[in-house]
């Protein structure tokens, strides 16, 4: 059997970038041999194994053919007869279809190195069209490698995929995985611009309002190095809560993402009216966003206010923080000592908090 390093690790090391994870492909082995060598099988759908010591992923070389709609429509073939070239051919982009052997020799049957040099995203073969996830992956690579551009033929194929209704059949967790990765890449806004370019944005996010402004806002937040959940909230800032919910349900977004997006949208009336809110309104808002029990999340929420509010975001966030700090100084302890019970304590805390907020307004 022969073992080759493939995919992102080879691409990134040729680009002189930091390599984050190694993916390996094995040619000429059976699953039984792999298990005998101590590898742990993991893939339900693919013959993928984890190395007994490094825990890195090793996949048996495979070919694939599309036979039906969606992700489940693929037929895989693995066997000791599958060659490295055949395995590389089923990969998305030429820059991701380069292998490296033990001695450091590069195997590059689809001219990935040339495309790396010319900074081009180019499909490996016509089979590119068979997996709609590739549209989303290429958009993610655009966010990761901002100096690269799309080959026109690849763009056409991506547009063809978008027109085919296949994107709708993707499994939400595969889609979200690429979105979350995109939000962590170098220029996340490019991910959404590329989706737009190949007509996939309106399929993935039909609810997104003010698309151009939304992407600009996200780009600004990303340029400041803000965390991915704030970027997500920035993107959805002008989309109403009902539609944010639809997006979240469809993509099954993790809680930390949808909470911030939802809460920042719900906070807009308070932020918009920052000078005129009274103490009761501020307290009601702090309770609605659960600021006293979730202080860390509250500070993240204020980042959204700081950078997404068109006017005076920084001042508004500071004011909200001041209001919060004054209210947060009030605790239950003195009221318990006074002998208050149950609901009375809550009422007394609220009253004291309103007084504290009023003082600083
Ligand atoms: P990153 O460094 O950002 O993880 P990567 O290229 O390693 O990028 P992975 O998702 O880890 O991306 O996939 C590893 C490799 O597997 C890719 O480089 C590509 O060759 C291949 N690959 C993964 N998903 C697909 C797909 N849907 N279609 C075709 N090839 C794919
Ligand atoms: Mg990888």
Ligand kinds: adenosine-5'-triphosphate, magnesium ion
* Rg, alpha carbons: 26 Å
Overall shape: it is elongated
Low-confidence stretches are none
End-to-end gap? 73 Å
Strand proportion:
5-15%
Strand order of the largest sheet: 3-4-5-2-1-8-9
Structural class by secondary-structure content: alpha+beta
Residue-averaged pLDDT: 95
Helix content: 40-55%
The main β sheet shows up as: 7 strands, mixed
Following the backbone from N to C, one meets helices and strands in this order, namely EHEHEEEEEHEEHEHEHHHHHHHHHHHHH
Work out the helix count: 18
- Can you count the beta strands? 11
Characterization of the model:
With 361 residues, the chain is an alpha+beta fold. Among the domains are: 1-110, Beta Polymerase, domain 2; 221-361, no CATH class. It is 53% helix and 10% strand. It is built from 18 helices and eleven strands. It has helices at 8-14, 31-36, 84-89, 112-118, 133-144, 152-163, 172-183, 188-197, 201-204, 211-223, 228-235, 241-251, 255-272, 279-288, 295-308, 313-328, 333-337, 342-360; strands at residues 2-6, 23-27, 40-41, 48-50, 57-60, 62-66, 74-78, 99-100, 106-107, 120-121, 149-150. The strands form three sheets. It has a seven-stranded mixed beta sheet. Strands 6-7 form a two-stranded antiparallel ribbon. Strands 10-11 form a two-stranded parallel sheet. The mean pLDDT is 95. Bound molecules: adenosine-5'-triphosphate and magnesium ion. Magnesium ion binds at residues 7-8, 21, 23.
């Amino acid at each position: 059997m022969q073992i080759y390093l493939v995919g992102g690790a080879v691409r990134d090391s040729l680009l002189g970038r930091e390599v984050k994870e190694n993916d390996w492909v094995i040619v000429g082995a059976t699953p039984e041999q792999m298990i005998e060598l101590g590898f742990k099988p993991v893939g339900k759908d693919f013959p993928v194994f984890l190395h007994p010591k490094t825990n890195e992923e090793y996949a048996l070389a495979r070919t694939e053919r599309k036979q039906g709609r969606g992700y489940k429509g693929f037929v895989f073939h693995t066997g000791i007869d599958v060659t490295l070239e055949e395995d590389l051919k089923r990969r998305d982009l030429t820059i991701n279809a380069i292998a490296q052997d033990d001695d450091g020799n590069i195997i590059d049957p689809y001219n990935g190195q040339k495309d790396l040099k010319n900074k081009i995203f180019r499909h490996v073969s016509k089979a590119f069209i068979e997996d709609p996830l590739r549209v989303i992956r290429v958009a993610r690579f655009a966010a990761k490698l901002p100096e690269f551009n799309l080959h026109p033929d690849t763009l056409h194929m991506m547009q063809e995929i978008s027109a085919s209704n296949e994107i709708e059949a993707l499994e939400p967790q595969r889609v979200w995985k690429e979105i979350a990765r995109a939000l962590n890449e170098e220029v996340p806004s490019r991910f959404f611009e590329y989706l737009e370019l190949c007509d996939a944005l309106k399929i993935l996010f039909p609810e997104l309002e003010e698309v151009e402004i939304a992407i600009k806002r996200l780009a600004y937040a990303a340029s400041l190095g803000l965390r991915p959940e704030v970027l997500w909230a920035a993107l959805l800032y002008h989309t109403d809560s009902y539609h944010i919910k639809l997006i979240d349900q469809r993509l099954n977004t993790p809680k930390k993402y949808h909470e911030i997006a939802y809460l920042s949208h719900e906070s807009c009336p308070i932020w918009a009216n920052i000078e005129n809110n009274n103490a009761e309104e501020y307290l009601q808002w702090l309770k609605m966003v659960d600021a006293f029990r979730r202080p860390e999340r509250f500070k993240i929420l204020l980042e959204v206010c700081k950078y997404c509010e068109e006017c005076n975001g920084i001042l508004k966030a500071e004011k909200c923080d001041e209001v919060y700090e004054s209210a947060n100084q009030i605790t239950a302890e003195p009221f318990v000592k006074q002998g208050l019970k149950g609901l009375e304590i809550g009422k007394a805390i609220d009253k004291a908090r309103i007084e504290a907020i009023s003082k600083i307004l």
